[in-house]
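We emphasize that the prediction below concerns an isolated chain of 268 residues; any contacts that depend on oligomerization or on bound cofactors are therefore not represented. The input was used exactly as deposited, without trimming of termini.
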Amino acid sequence: MATNIRDDHQTDAVLRTEGLNVYYGNFLALRDIWLDIPKNRVTAFIGPSGCGKSTLLRCYNRLNDLIESFRAEGTIYYYGENLYAPNIDPVEVRRRIGMVFQRPNPFPKSIYENIAFGPRINGFKGNLDELVERSLKQAALWDEVKDKLRQSGLSLSGGQQQRLCIARAIATQPDVILMDEPCSALDPISTLRVEDLLHELKEQYTIVIVTHNMQQASRVSDMTAFFNVQTSEKGGRTGYLVEYDRTENIFQSPQQEATKEYVSGKFG
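Result of the prediction step, given as a C-alpha cell string:
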C-alpha cells in the first residue's frame, strides 16, 4: 500500500516546482518550470493558448498520470515532499489537491449526493448532513438549494452547477483547489459570484486558477504567472514561464517585454 502524504505544513510555499519538463511521448510540452505557489493566496496562470497552463495545473494533482504518453522530469514538492515519489498515492494527492474544471460537471445525482459522494468513498466518519451544509455554504450555494437537496444537480443553472462543483471539491477537505478556467462557460453575473467566492475561499484554501481572461486574473489573484509558447520548425509548441510576480506588478510594471505586450493586448 502506498504511503499517504505527511501533514507537514511548516513552509509558506505549498507547491514548489523545480526544473519541471513535461513530455507527451517525445513532445516537450513544458520546459524548465521553476515556480512556488504561496499558501492561502490565489495564483493565476495566464498566457496564450497552448502555453501549458492547464498541463502544469494537472501536474499538481497528478491528473496527467492518466495520459499514457505523459512523462515528467524535475520535481514538484507539496510541503517539501516529492509528489511524484514512488511511495506517494495519487488518489491521496487528488484528495488533498482538488480540481474544478472548465465546464460544470455535476454527477448525475442529487445535489446532496454530489457533495456526499467523495467524502463517503474516502471513508468520512463524521456527520454527512453537516458536511454537505458546510460545503454548500462555503460555496455560497446553500441558501439557493437548501430546500431541494434531493433534486438532481443537473437541474441547476450553469453558475449554480459550477458552485456545486466547487462545493464538491471542498467537501473532501482539500488543502489546495485547482481551477481550470472555471468561469469560461458562465454568464457575467455567475462569473462575478464565483470571483467573489474565490476571495472568501482563500482564507482557508490555496487556490491556483488558469484563466484566459486577464481582467479576471487582475481582479481575483494575488500572484500571476505569465507563460508563453515557443513554436518549433515542425510546428511543435512548447510552453515556458516568462515572468512570475505579484499580480499588480505583472499588470502595472512587468519586467519582461513579452509580458508587457501580452497584458496590453498586443498578442494572445
